[in-house]
Design a protein that fits this description.
4 strands, 4-stranded parallel sheet, alpha/beta, elongated, Rossmann fold, 5 helices, about 50% helix, 2 domains
């Protein structure tokens, strides 16, 4: 089987904020960081998405295009940082979950171990339930000994 077919196929996403204080260099720097990261990981770059738009919404032209990519053509979306998706973490998380449901993972080059807040919340909830159950068992055990 061809080694090229075994490589993880990625799309790159770069965004700078809209406004006069931003310039195209920000997009080029992000893109180069993602290219370097992809090459280091051995990923195959299939698409590159770049836009200049505000970060308070996740309803943007390029993100909407990304949502429509087939998981057979791209396995993963590479982004430098979660704030490039949205500065509102709930909106960013909703986008991440929507991509995952469609079969596309997301990876942040600046924070490869990033876990969406809903996954943190789920882990925290499970831990709280476990601790609550342990505390109930301790109280019951103390009552039985008394």
């Amino acid at each position: 089987m061809n080694n090229e077919n075994n490589r993880i196929k990625v799309a790159l996403y770069c965004r700078i904020a809209s406004g006069a204080s931003q310039d195209q260099m920000g997009l080029e720097v992000q893109e180069q960081k993602l290219i370097d990261y992809a090459e280091k990981k051995g990923y195959q770059i299939k698409y590159r998405f770049k836009e200049q738009a505000g970060g308070l919404t996740a309803d943007r032209e390029m993100l909407n295009l990304i949502k429509n990519i087939s998981p057979s053509s791209v396995n993963r979306l590479l982004v430098t940082d979660v704030s490039r998706i949205s500065r509102d973490l709930m909106k960013a998380d909703a986008f991440i979950q929507e991509l995952k449901k469609s079969g596309i993972e997301i990876e942040f080059s600046e924070h490869p171990d990033y876990i969406p807040w809903t996954e943190h919340a789920q882990k925290l909830m499970v831990q709280m339930i476990k601790e609550t159950n342990v505390n109930k068992k301790r109280k019951k055990s103390k009552r039985l000994r008394a």
